[in-house]
Amino acid sequence: MSKYVGPVEFPCEITLGRGLEGAITNVTKIGAVNGVEGKLIYRGYDIKTLCDHSNYEEVAYLLIYGNLPTQSEMSAFSAELKREGEMPAPIMRMIEGLPRDAHPMNALQAAVAAAGCFDKEGWEVTKHTSDPAAALEIERKVGIRILARTRSFASAIARAQMGKDLLQPNPDLGFTANYLYMMSGEVPDETMCEVMDVCLILQADHGMNASTFTSMVVHSSLADMYSTMAAAIGSLRGPLHGGANEAALNDFMSIGGPDKAAAWVEQRFAQGKKIIGFGHRVYKALDPRAVVLKQYAEKLCREKGFGDLYDTVETVERETLKRMEAAGKKIYPNVDYYSGLVYHALGFPTQLFPVIFAVARTAGWLARVLEYLPENRIFRPRAVYDGASDLKYVPMGER
Ligand SMILES: CC(C)(COP(=O)(O)OP(=O)(O)OC[C@H]1O[C@@H](n2cnc3c(N)ncnc32)[C@H](O)[C@@H]1OP(=O)(O)O)[C@@H](O)C(=O)NCCC(=O)NCCS
């Protein structure tokens, strides 16, 4: 039996916890989290191997198509991402018209949903017809368009919030370099692209997390791909999920230095508050993504003059781990503990962190909904009713 997934025959017997803990949505070949050993694989490849040898475009292809591309497949996919990354003019105007202090995740969700109104191919999807293979092709094409555009919208939102003119993608640059270029207006150097690629790879897919489940639920009603992705962005926004990188950095910045970190952790525990960036539903070992990001965080923070902040974060980690160990809890830093620090050192405003996560995760959302489409059955769990019954209606004036 695989250590990632056991054979599942539906219906099957499972033990459920709150928050659908233990529930199984479907059988997948896309990726798996091994929470006991602290491993993450995409299509059979260890995440560390992909970070060392690949880039985000190639990993997106791998997730969506199921295999590493040949040179010509990669060239065609890159060309498609370039072509599809152009933003429709009305959406650019819409982004410019949003309040500058709006949360970028709300803006991104609005931009993706609004872009669906301009893409007839997107909402006239033929999956209702008798040709499922053609429907799958169209869904994939529209999904790749959304992936490219989400990246462009993310950059445009950042730029609009800085009060700068929006930029369309530079046709000479790849997906990741364009993400950075469209935000700053400058062609990024190779090192910056490499770090960004690693961050995007690490967040591209992660089992049946809340936003991925959201995408599956929405798409299972045969809703269009724009509605699906916009809903997933909404699900990712909260501090228990993709918003944790932003919340964690805000906490770290408020501590006031490494010498205050131990007292901060003590107070946090005394107040019964969580340490954002710690804990995970599945990992009961170190999150392998945090292991990679910690190295980048330290290197970048020391290079860019944020050594004190890094030391603060490491002290919080050490103090928290001590307490977790004493309490017998297997709770460790997750991806969001160090990702925010990397983005901060790269110069991103804190509010943008969850948006970077959303850009990365779009590939995972797309891969998962496409995989489920041929065997689609609408998601429909139950709630247990524990309320009153047989109440008599009392007219308003008599209440
Ligand atoms: C990720 C998370 C939402 C998983 O939630 P979950 O599987 O429902 O786990 P729970 O919140 O029920 O936590 C289980 C136990 O671990 C503790 N715990 C979990 N995360 C903790 C954290 N970050 N700090 C302190 N204690 C934590 C809980 O207090 C609880 O303890 P108890 O059993 O004594 O009551 C949760 O760990 C969390 O809120 N972490 C902080 C937010 C975060 O970093 N999110 C990004 C995830 S990638």
Report on this model:
With 399 residues, the chain is mainly α. The chain has 2 domains: 70-241 and 349-375, Citrate Synthase, domain 1 (Orthogonal Bundle); 244-346, Orthogonal Bundle (Cytochrome p450-Terp, domain 2), CATH 1.10.230. Helix content is 56%, strand content 3%. The chain has helices spanning 47-53, 56-65, 71-84, 89-97, 104-117, 120-123, 132-161, 175-184, 190-202, 210-220, 225-236, 244-255, 261-270, 288-303, 307-326, 335-346, 353-372, and strands spanning 31-34, 39-42, 45-46. A 3-stranded antiparallel beta sheet has the order 1-2-3. Bound molecules: coenzyme A. Coenzyme A binds next to helix 16. Coenzyme A binds at residues 19, 240-241, 244, 274-281, 329, 331, 334-336.
Assigned CATH architecture of the largest domain: Orthogonal Bundle
The averaged pLDDT comes out at 95
| Major sheet size, sense and barrel closure | 3 strands, antiparallel
Low-pLDDT parts are none
Give the bound compounds: coenzyme A
Alpha-carbon Rg, integer: 22 Å
Strand content: under 5%
CATH topology of the largest domain: Citrate Synthase, domain 1
The secondary structure category is: mainly alpha
Number of helices: 17
Based on CA inertia axes, which overall geometry fits? globular
Please identify the top-level CATH class of the largest domain.
Answer: Mainly Alpha
Integer count of domains: 2
Number of strands: 3
Helicity level? 55-70%
Q: Distance between termini?
A: 61 Å
